[in-house]
Each structure stands twice: as C-alpha cells, then as structure tokens.
Specification:
107 residues; alpha+beta; 2 domains; five-stranded antiparallel beta sheet
C-alpha cells in the first residue's frame, strides 16, 4: 500500500459538484433514504444550537427582546431546552416563552 503525502483535499465546490453528479444517479428510494438522513442531521444541529444558546442564560438574568418593533425588558424565570421563560419588568407583567436567539442580556 502506497501512502500519498500532501494530497490536496477537494475544495467545497468540487465536493458539491461530485455530490450533485451522484444524486443524479440515485433511485427514488435512495433519495428518500438520504433525505431522511439529511433531515435528521439538520434537526440535530438545530437542537445543539438551541441548547448552546439556552445555556447562555440563567435564572435571574436581565434580558431584552424586540417584538413588532417594540422593545421589551424582563427577567429570566426559567430556562428550558428550546425556550426561555421571561417575566416582564413593567406592567402588565406578562410572562413570555421566547427562543434564546431573540434575547439579549442586559448588565
């Protein structure tokens, strides 16, 4: 077996081009199977991203967010896997369930 050193890896454009050529040769059944794998991978990556974003917040953190052009301010009440429960600081003192991506910490 011969070991090739300094072999260049294909560029992302080349990989994409090769994938497209392979996809054209697949059957409908194979495409459905690959689609399921891709959807599962996307869901996994989104879950990891959501968990990382949620882990940036702790109970008691002061936060702000914007909705329909209006700025809101509140305090983190509970951190869930996908959402953060926030209580408003000002009347009417509503509670919101907000994706962590929309929240900003306030010092």
């Amino acid at each position: 077996m011969q070991v090739v050193k300094n072999e260049k890896r294909p560029t992302p454009d080349k990989v994409e081009e090769q994938l497209l050529l392979l996809i054209e040769k697949l059957t409908m059944e194979q495409l459905y199977e690959i689609n399921g794998i891709i959807v599962d991978r996307i869901k996994y990556l989104e879950k990891v991203k959501d968990l990382k974003a949620a882990n940036a917040f702790r109970r008691g953190n002061k936060v702000s967010w914007e909705r329909d052009g209006v700025d809101y301010f509140g305090v983190v009440v509970k951190v869930n896997q996908k959402t953060i429960n926030v209580a408003e600081n000002t009347p009417p003192y509503r509670q919101w369930k907000i994706s962590p991506h929309y929240l900003k910490k306030i010092q």
